[in-house]
Amino acid sequence: MDTTTAIARFDEVRADTERLAAPLSPEDQTVQSMPDVSPTKWHRAHVTWFFETFVLAENEPGFTPFQDTYWFLFNSYYEQVGPRYARPMRGVISRPGAYEVGDYRRNIDDRIRDLLDRVDEGAFAKLAPTIELGFHHEQQHQELLLMDIKHVLSLNPLQPTYAGGPVAGAGTDRLGWVDFDGGLVEIGSADGGEGGGFCFDNELPRHQQWLEPYRLADRLITNGEWLEFMADGGYRRPELWLSDGWGRVNAEGWDAPFYWRELDGEWFEHTLHGTAPLDPGLPVCHLSHYEADAYATWAGKRLPTEAEWEHAARAYEVVGNLADRDSFHPRAAGPATDGLRQLFGDCWEWTSSAYLPYPGFHPAAGAIGEYNGKFMSSQMVLRGGCALTPPGHTRASYRNFFPPGARWPVTGLRLADDGRRA
Ligand SMILES: [Fe+2]
Fold it and tell me: Which terms are listed as keywords in the entry (predicted)?
């Protein structure tokens, strides 16, 4: 990457965020509907703060912050940067408003472009990894912005629409299986520090893992299949559930996926393009890890490990129903092939793997080292991307992670099974 490429990429990523926020009024952008959700304008400001704090403050001659207290408001979780405003209270911050956040963004945009224009080759080589991390960080927040506004709008009885349109209806086709021999395989990014492609630190180091023979379902589980699980008492049978999951079923009254609503015996689903009758042929989404695991148990199968998923996915091109399709919702799998369908896009796929450091993982020194490593506790890995993931933001080695009870992300499931030794 040279400075011209960096400026072009910077402009593109920054414009994408503003394009996603554009359909939302300042009032929409202010609401925080639960502690896990952040207001749209907070996302827009926080990703700007990231560039201001980690790129400008360390590289801009005579740096002064855009505003004295934004570092306090828009720091997400970086302890080494300093104290920050309480996350669950982000929705009560009415000022700066959405337009003032726009002013903040434009100011930092101009200053980043100026810096990149003027910087010499040696200094650029030093800041390039951080600015590239800033691009991918902003893309992560683009996905979160959409997941979060989906929840905000779901609580409004007017059933407002964000964007997109209904996706094509579909029947559920027969679930196929693809066999893998396993053996000694390599897991983790092959690009980090080698091929020049970007990866997060948690995708490194590349290392060997032993896999027993296994099988993966050739597509995601559908709404229609989920209805069968429900009809068979799926949410009422403790023997199907992990203990923590059964606790949540009872404590929170789970009886269907997160955005499903039953009206006069018919199921409807909240989507970013409004509330729609449930389509049995579309992938089931907004499941917790506990629900995905219970379904797999009910089906006599299991969830894939992240190594099984990654080993299988390496053979496939990273194409799918991502956030460039403008439907902003998972789509049907399409015609069967002799391979795996829906690997990238549609729904993040829960794995049975706890989010842990790979052997030899070392977070970077300083505050930026807090990006991933400190979350390697009490979370499960998801793979593949979803219909809200920006194109170019996922890959076979990408490790997403959420707590096992999270239901507001766009999460689904692919079954796995043990294979037979040849
Ligand atoms: Fe962030």
Answer: Iron, Oxidoreductase
Q: Is residue 68 part of a domain?
A: yes
- Using CA atoms, how far residue 292 sits from 39, 235, 332, 354, 376, in Å, is 28, 12, 18, 14, 21
Using one digit for the tens of pLDDT, what is the confidence trace for 263-310?
A: 999 999 999 999 999 999 999 999 999 999 999 999 999 999 999 999
Domain containing residue 205: CATH number: 3.90.1580.10
| Containing structural domain, residue 32 | 3-155
pTM of the predicted model as reported, rounded to 2 decimal places: 0.96
Residue 170 forms part of a structural domain: no
Interval 322-358: pLDDT, tens: 998 778 999 999 899 999 999 999 999 999 999 999 9
Listed residue (104, 103, 126) closest to 116, CA to CA = 126
Specify whether 80 is located in the same domain as 10. yes
Angle at CA of residue 205, ends 199 and 418, nearest 5°:
95
Question: Does residue 274 belong to any structural domain of this protein?
Answer: yes
How many angstroms separate the alpha carbon of residue 86 from the centre of ligand 1?
A: 15
Centre of ligand 1 to C-alpha 329, Å, is 23
